[in-house]
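To close the section, here is one more complete example, presented without commentary so you can practise reading it yourself. The ligand is glycyl-adenosine-5'-phosphate.
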Amino acid sequence: MFIVKKKIGGKEYYYLRESRREKGKVKAVTVAYLGKTKKDAEKRMKNFVKKKEEGLKKPENKKEVMVEESVRTEIGIDELARYCKRKGFVYPSGEVYGGLAGFWDFGHLGVELLRNIKDGWWNFHVRDREDMEGMDGSIITNPKVWEASGHVESFVDYIVVNKKNKEKFKVDAHELGKYEKDDKYIVEGKFNPMFTTKVGPVNGNESYLRPETAQSIFVNFKNVFDNSRAKLPFGIAQVGKAFRNEIAPREFLFRSREFEQMEIEYFIKSGMKCDLIDEVKGIKIKMLTGDMQSGNKEEEEMEIYSAWKKGLIGDWQAYWLAQEFSWFILLGAKSENFRARQHTSEERSHYAIDTWDLEYKFPMGWRELQGFANRGSFDLTQHQKASGKKFEVFVEGEGRIIPEVACEPSLGVGRAFLVFMLDAYEYNKERDNVVLHLNPKLAPYKAAILPLMSKGEVADISHEIFRELKEEWNVLFDKSGSIGRRYSRNDEVGTPYCIAVDQETIDKKTITIRDRDSTKQIRVKTKELMSVLRDLINDKVSFINAGKVVSTRVK
Ligand code: GAP
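Output:
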């Protein structure tokens, strides 16, 4: 085993890697995240190796090892939707009236998870970087924006009907020929998926609900550039709602009519090289290029850096692909469920020069999770022409130029939600309940306070702890049912830590913390609870090193 350091967004992260022999080849795989400093990494590696050796030596430890290494349980997308409804994450919108296809409402747990995803994304991409500005545009804007961007003219889907089962679905222009030739289908026509609305109560002007957040970034480009006194290269990020009147909204949050996007437009001077490319060294992902698809080849695991060196992917696309993939992995998604696929020339959007997708193995198969288009100067040039306003910037030695978008990482929040839920979901046979292994940073409740007595001093101190923790996190006060029932209830919604308050809390001023993933328990001083939890949530200490390990009957 060996430690590797990766630089992501200017920050250092340490990983434990191991060489494994698979199908006759030796491969290096990441086995654990070790933290942000070399010292932490060395300490954690020692613990990891020690734990592994103990597990190998003593067969009676197998049970614990199995729980820690448990993998995702396959779950269908509809089953996940039912689970999310039952547990209070997501409800079909307007369900009492039969719902409305493509629209969803989020319950308390769902909205907390959504917020944590969006905050995590914003911190990683905006606050932790020096080359990123943020903005938040309106949902409805001047309709001329959508004329200039090409959406009114070229943003079209084709409706195809399966003659046998009458099922309607959308296809892109490049797939049309296939269905026109096949007499099992009828191409019913084309339509523009932008929702229209009237602005103004009487004889209002027609406008659109934005189908992507990107255009508010383009039309505000000069405002943001001038206000921030930015220098190229730099990016503008936005998180916000988008709407598309999808022909066949389906597969839970995967394809909805109202959804949120987290988008970046990364601007460069034409031909500018990516000086951050070294940060992608060592990051591997399954890749499928356009040529591999034409040759009917399967995806292959490659180092993104080597793929760039071989000219399979552009430098900026490679950099952003690695950033986004790392973001998912740092928050607990499973690397084996991701691949990067290049768009074939027929499927590229009207504005794109080259596009890659980060795909994820959803229960329905490999599907687009996030797009990485190279939009060139298409959008700024269009808006300059249509508005008559200057979108140029001054570059030392070059004069006034229109910047290019080297890469547009564009991700749906709902799709990210599905990824984290799917990779976290485990039906644990031993415990006979679902365990949602969400990363503590994403978990809706960071902790649950479980008083072991409902009255007296134990109840009072439990309330005090609850109030204190609430100042920093969303936590749950869970007083009803047996302790075992309370543990499983919290496992099912991904609460990483359960805090049991008992007589010893009064007598010895200590408290028990139970770890969701391993069911292990530690005892810590009550006055240190807050800082221990903070270290655990921020992955600064491993659970068994955060306090005194204690054994208990109820796991
Ligand atoms: N600005 C570029 C753009 O919007 P896109 O590929 O059409 O590109 C980007 O969309 C991302 O938005 C997708 O990769 C997906 O994650 C999300 N997305 C698009 N349509 C969606 C829908 N109907 N429901 C949920 N997410 C969607």
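Once you have examined the tokens, check your reading against these statements. The radius of gyration is 26 Å. The first helix runs from residue 38 to 57.
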